[in-house]
Design a protein that fits this description.
The chain is mainly alpha-helical. The chain has 10 helices and 4 strands. It is rod-shaped, with a radius of gyration of 39 Å. The relative contact order is 0.06.
Protein backbone atom coordinates (compact mmCIF):
# COMPACT_ATOMS: atom_id res chain seq x y z
CA UNK A 1 0.00 0.00 0.00
CA UNK A 2 1.35 3.41 -1.00
CA UNK A 3 1.77 6.27 1.50
CA UNK A 4 -0.91 8.29 -0.33
CA UNK A 5 -3.40 5.40 -0.12
CA UNK A 6 -2.57 4.87 3.56
CA UNK A 7 -3.17 8.52 4.45
CA UNK A 8 -6.13 9.43 2.24
CA UNK A 9 -7.97 6.21 1.31
CA UNK A 10 -7.55 3.72 4.15
CA UNK A 11 -10.24 4.43 6.76
CA UNK A 12 -8.99 1.82 9.23
CA UNK A 13 -5.97 3.81 10.44
CA UNK A 14 -7.32 7.38 10.15
CA UNK A 15 -7.62 8.05 13.86
CA UNK A 16 -4.13 6.64 14.45
CA UNK A 17 -2.61 8.80 11.70
CA UNK A 18 -4.35 11.91 13.03
CA UNK A 19 -3.23 11.33 16.65
CA UNK A 20 0.38 10.62 15.62
CA UNK A 21 0.47 13.71 13.35
CA UNK A 22 -1.05 15.89 16.06
CA UNK A 23 1.42 14.71 18.73
CA UNK A 24 4.34 15.02 16.30
CA UNK A 25 3.67 18.69 15.63
CA UNK A 26 3.01 19.37 19.32
CA UNK A 27 6.50 18.01 20.03
CA UNK A 28 8.02 20.01 17.16
CA UNK A 29 6.47 23.20 18.48
CA UNK A 30 7.44 22.47 22.09
CA UNK A 31 11.09 21.76 21.35
CA UNK A 32 11.50 24.35 18.58
CA UNK A 33 9.43 27.09 20.18
CA UNK A 34 10.75 30.44 18.99
CA UNK A 35 8.88 33.57 18.05
CA UNK A 36 8.28 32.72 14.46
CA UNK A 37 4.85 32.62 12.80
CA UNK A 38 3.30 30.17 15.22
CA UNK A 39 -0.17 30.07 13.78
CA UNK A 40 0.58 29.65 10.11
CA UNK A 41 3.22 26.98 10.48
CA UNK A 42 2.73 23.26 9.86
CA UNK A 43 1.95 22.77 13.54
CA UNK A 44 -1.55 24.07 12.90
CA UNK A 45 -2.12 23.34 9.23
CA UNK A 46 -1.50 19.64 8.62
CA UNK A 47 -3.36 18.11 11.61
CA UNK A 48 -6.36 20.40 11.00
CA UNK A 49 -6.54 19.59 7.29
CA UNK A 50 -6.29 15.87 8.04
CA UNK A 51 -8.97 16.10 10.76
CA UNK A 52 -11.32 17.94 8.38
CA UNK A 53 -10.67 15.55 5.51
CA UNK A 54 -11.20 12.53 7.74
CA UNK A 55 -14.13 13.60 9.92
CA UNK A 56 -15.59 16.88 8.63
CA UNK A 57 -15.82 20.61 9.34
CA UNK A 58 -16.77 20.43 13.02
CA UNK A 59 -13.85 18.15 13.84
CA UNK A 60 -11.44 20.48 12.03
CA UNK A 61 -12.67 23.55 13.94
CA UNK A 62 -12.57 21.63 17.23
CA UNK A 63 -8.97 20.60 16.63
CA UNK A 64 -8.08 24.21 15.77
CA UNK A 65 -9.43 25.34 19.15
CA UNK A 66 -7.64 22.50 20.95
CA UNK A 67 -4.35 23.41 19.28
CA UNK A 68 -4.83 27.06 20.23
CA UNK A 69 -5.34 26.18 23.91
CA UNK A 70 -2.32 23.84 23.85
CA UNK A 71 -0.31 26.58 22.13
CA UNK A 72 -1.21 29.06 24.89
CA UNK A 73 -0.51 26.46 27.60
CA UNK A 74 2.97 25.75 26.23
CA UNK A 75 3.80 29.45 25.95
CA UNK A 76 2.51 30.07 29.50
CA UNK A 77 4.43 27.08 30.88
CA UNK A 78 7.68 28.32 29.31
CA UNK A 79 7.10 31.88 30.57
CA UNK A 80 6.61 33.42 27.16
CA UNK A 81 4.08 36.05 26.11
CA UNK A 82 0.95 34.73 24.45
CA UNK A 83 -1.34 37.76 24.31
CA UNK A 84 -0.17 38.42 20.73
CA UNK A 85 -2.29 35.45 19.65
CA UNK A 86 -5.41 37.55 20.23
CA UNK A 87 -4.02 41.01 19.41
CA UNK A 88 -1.88 40.77 16.30
CA UNK A 89 -3.78 41.23 13.05
CA UNK A 90 -1.61 38.76 11.13
CA UNK A 91 -2.50 36.08 13.67
CA UNK A 92 -6.20 36.87 13.31
CA UNK A 93 -5.86 36.73 9.52
CA UNK A 94 -4.08 33.38 9.88
CA UNK A 95 -6.96 32.02 11.97
CA UNK A 96 -9.50 33.23 9.41
CA UNK A 97 -7.43 31.67 6.62
CA UNK A 98 -7.36 28.36 8.46
CA UNK A 99 -11.15 28.48 8.88
CA UNK A 100 -11.53 29.09 5.14
CA UNK A 101 -9.20 26.16 4.42
CA UNK A 102 -11.22 23.97 6.80
CA UNK A 103 -14.43 24.94 5.00
CA UNK A 104 -12.96 24.26 1.55
CA UNK A 105 -11.58 20.87 2.65
CA UNK A 106 -14.95 19.95 4.20
CA UNK A 107 -16.68 20.81 0.90
CA UNK A 108 -14.18 18.67 -0.97
CA UNK A 109 -14.81 15.86 1.50
CA UNK A 110 -18.57 16.14 1.01
CA UNK A 111 -18.24 16.08 -2.79
CA UNK A 112 -15.89 13.10 -2.58
CA UNK A 113 -18.30 11.21 -0.30
CA UNK A 114 -21.23 12.02 -2.61
CA UNK A 115 -19.28 10.69 -5.59
CA UNK A 116 -18.37 7.52 -3.70
CA UNK A 117 -22.01 7.06 -2.66
CA UNK A 118 -23.18 7.58 -6.24
CA UNK A 119 -20.59 5.11 -7.47
CA UNK A 120 -21.74 2.58 -4.88
CA UNK A 121 -25.41 3.04 -5.87
CA UNK A 122 -24.48 2.71 -9.54
CA UNK A 123 -22.55 -0.48 -8.84
CA UNK A 124 -25.43 -1.94 -6.82
CA UNK A 125 -27.92 -0.98 -9.54
CA UNK A 126 -25.70 -2.58 -12.18
CA UNK A 127 -25.43 -5.79 -10.17
CA UNK A 128 -29.19 -5.82 -9.58
CA UNK A 129 -29.83 -5.25 -13.28
CA UNK A 130 -27.49 -8.11 -14.14
CA UNK A 131 -29.34 -10.39 -11.71
CA UNK A 132 -32.69 -9.37 -13.19
CA UNK A 133 -31.45 -10.02 -16.73
CA UNK A 134 -30.11 -13.42 -15.68
CA UNK A 135 -33.42 -14.26 -13.99
CA UNK A 136 -35.36 -13.03 -17.02
CA UNK A 137 -33.27 -15.12 -19.45
CA UNK A 138 -33.62 -18.21 -17.25
CA UNK A 139 -37.34 -17.62 -16.88
CA UNK A 140 -37.86 -17.20 -20.63
CA UNK A 141 -35.89 -20.38 -21.23
CA UNK A 142 -38.18 -22.28 -18.84
CA UNK A 143 -41.27 -20.72 -20.41
CA UNK A 144 -40.14 -21.65 -23.92
CA UNK A 145 -39.46 -25.22 -22.83
CA UNK A 146 -42.81 -25.54 -21.05
CA UNK A 147 -44.75 -23.99 -23.94
CA UNK A 148 -43.21 -26.17 -26.62
CA UNK A 149 -44.62 -29.44 -25.32
CA UNK A 150 -48.33 -28.51 -24.92
CA UNK A 151 -48.41 -26.43 -28.11
CA UNK A 152 -46.78 -29.31 -29.99
CA UNK A 153 -49.43 -31.68 -28.65
CA UNK A 154 -52.22 -29.31 -29.67
CA UNK A 155 -50.79 -28.94 -33.19
CA UNK A 156 -50.43 -32.71 -33.55
CA UNK A 157 -53.99 -33.28 -32.36
CA UNK A 158 -55.35 -30.67 -34.77
CA UNK A 159 -53.42 -32.24 -37.65
CA UNK A 160 -54.84 -35.65 -36.78
CA UNK A 161 -58.38 -34.32 -36.70
CA UNK A 162 -58.01 -32.40 -39.96
CA UNK A 163 -56.24 -35.11 -41.93
CA UNK A 164 -58.16 -38.09 -40.57
CA UNK A 165 -61.64 -36.70 -40.00
CA UNK A 166 -63.44 -39.96 -40.72
CA UNK A 167 -60.90 -42.27 -39.09
CA UNK A 168 -61.80 -41.51 -35.46
CA UNK A 169 -64.65 -42.80 -33.40
CA UNK A 170 -66.60 -40.37 -31.26
CA UNK A 171 -64.77 -41.50 -28.15
CA UNK A 172 -61.36 -41.05 -29.80
CA UNK A 173 -62.37 -37.62 -31.03
CA UNK A 174 -63.51 -36.68 -27.52
CA UNK A 175 -60.20 -37.87 -26.09
CA UNK A 176 -58.28 -35.71 -28.57
CA UNK A 177 -60.43 -32.68 -27.78
CA UNK A 178 -60.01 -33.24 -24.06
CA UNK A 179 -56.26 -33.51 -24.53
CA UNK A 180 -56.25 -30.25 -26.52
CA UNK A 181 -58.34 -28.55 -23.85
CA UNK A 182 -56.03 -29.74 -21.09
CA UNK A 183 -52.94 -28.61 -22.97
CA UNK A 184 -54.45 -25.23 -23.85
CA UNK A 185 -55.37 -24.75 -20.17
CA UNK A 186 -51.78 -25.41 -19.19
CA UNK A 187 -50.57 -22.88 -21.76
CA UNK A 188 -53.08 -20.33 -20.46
CA UNK A 189 -51.94 -20.84 -16.87
CA UNK A 190 -48.32 -20.56 -17.91
CA UNK A 191 -48.93 -17.31 -19.78
CA UNK A 192 -50.94 -15.94 -16.88
CA UNK A 193 -48.06 -16.66 -14.51
CA UNK A 194 -45.69 -14.97 -16.96
CA UNK A 195 -47.91 -11.88 -17.03
CA UNK A 196 -48.06 -11.74 -13.24
CA UNK A 197 -44.29 -12.15 -13.00
CA UNK A 198 -43.88 -9.27 -15.46
CA UNK A 199 -46.25 -7.06 -13.44
CA UNK A 200 -44.42 -7.99 -10.25
CA UNK A 201 -41.07 -6.97 -11.76
CA UNK A 202 -42.54 -3.60 -12.77
CA UNK A 203 -44.14 -3.08 -9.36
CA UNK A 204 -47.63 -3.12 -10.86
CA UNK A 205 -48.91 -6.29 -9.21
CA UNK A 206 -50.93 -5.40 -6.15
CA UNK A 207 -52.18 -7.73 -3.45
CA UNK A 208 -55.90 -7.50 -2.70
CA UNK A 209 -56.80 -9.38 0.45
CA UNK A 210 -60.30 -10.84 0.64
CA UNK A 211 -62.12 -13.74 2.27
CA UNK A 212 -61.99 -16.80 0.03
CA UNK A 213 -63.76 -20.12 0.29
CA UNK A 214 -60.77 -22.42 -0.01
CA UNK A 215 -62.81 -25.47 -1.01
CA UNK A 216 -64.47 -23.70 -3.94
CA UNK A 217 -61.16 -22.25 -5.08
CA UNK A 218 -59.43 -25.65 -5.00
CA UNK A 219 -62.27 -27.39 -6.83
CA UNK A 220 -62.13 -24.78 -9.59
CA UNK A 221 -58.41 -25.41 -9.96
CA UNK A 222 -58.97 -29.18 -9.96
CA UNK A 223 -61.49 -28.85 -12.81
CA UNK A 224 -58.85 -27.07 -14.92
CA UNK A 225 -56.42 -29.97 -14.42
CA UNK A 226 -59.01 -32.74 -14.66
CA UNK A 227 -58.23 -33.90 -18.21
CA UNK A 228 -54.47 -33.74 -17.64
CA UNK A 229 -54.90 -36.05 -14.66
CA UNK A 230 -57.32 -38.29 -16.56
CA UNK A 231 -54.79 -38.78 -19.34
CA UNK A 232 -52.40 -40.31 -16.78
CA UNK A 233 -55.27 -42.16 -15.13
CA UNK A 234 -54.72 -40.14 -11.96
CA UNK A 235 -57.62 -39.48 -9.62
CA UNK A 236 -57.93 -35.97 -8.18
CA UNK A 237 -59.95 -35.48 -5.00
CA UNK A 238 -60.55 -32.61 -2.58
CA UNK A 239 -61.00 -33.44 1.12
CA UNK A 240 -61.31 -29.80 2.18
CA UNK A 241 -64.10 -29.03 4.66
CA UNK A 242 -67.03 -26.80 3.78
CA UNK A 243 -67.10 -23.13 4.82
CA UNK A 244 -63.36 -22.95 5.39
CA UNK A 245 -62.22 -19.43 4.56
CA UNK A 246 -58.84 -17.77 4.25
CA UNK A 247 -57.88 -14.12 3.99
CA UNK A 248 -55.71 -13.93 0.87
CA UNK A 249 -55.33 -12.56 -2.65
CA UNK A 250 -57.48 -14.60 -5.03
CA UNK A 251 -55.12 -14.51 -8.02
CA UNK A 252 -52.12 -15.43 -5.90
CA UNK A 253 -53.97 -18.31 -4.21
CA UNK A 254 -55.22 -19.66 -7.54
CA UNK A 255 -51.72 -19.54 -8.98
CA UNK A 256 -50.31 -21.38 -5.95
CA UNK A 257 -52.99 -24.10 -6.01
CA UNK A 258 -52.74 -24.55 -9.80
CA UNK A 259 -48.99 -24.93 -9.63
CA UNK A 260 -49.28 -27.31 -6.71
CA UNK A 261 -51.78 -29.54 -8.58
CA UNK A 262 -49.77 -29.35 -11.81
CA UNK A 263 -46.60 -30.47 -10.03
CA UNK A 264 -48.47 -33.21 -8.21
CA UNK A 265 -49.76 -34.59 -11.54
CA UNK A 266 -46.35 -34.26 -13.11
CA UNK A 267 -44.58 -36.27 -10.41
CA UNK A 268 -47.34 -38.83 -9.72
CA UNK A 269 -47.09 -42.19 -11.46
CA UNK A 270 -49.89 -43.19 -13.86
CA UNK A 271 -52.82 -44.71 -11.99
CA UNK A 272 -51.98 -42.73 -8.87
CA UNK A 273 -54.14 -40.81 -6.47
CA UNK A 274 -53.89 -37.11 -5.50
CA UNK A 275 -55.79 -35.62 -2.59
CA UNK A 276 -55.94 -31.99 -1.48
CA UNK A 277 -56.56 -31.28 2.16
CA UNK A 278 -56.11 -28.42 4.63
CA UNK A 279 -55.03 -28.13 8.21
CA UNK A 280 -56.03 -25.30 10.54
CA UNK A 281 -53.29 -23.87 12.76
Amino acid sequence: MSLRALIFENKKYRIHILVVTFLLFICIFYFCNTKISYIVNLYYGIPIILATFYFGFITGVTLLLIESFIHIAILAATGEEFAFIYLESRIQIAFISLLVVIYIVSLFRQVKNNLLESEKKYKNATEELHKLNTTKDRFYSIIAHDLRSPIGTINSSIDLLLNNTNSFTDNERDDLLQTMRSRSTNVYNLLENLLKWSLLQKGELYIKLEKLDIKTLCEDCISLQFFTAKKKNIKLESLIKDNLQVNADKNAMEAIVRNMISNAIKFTNPGGFITINTEEK
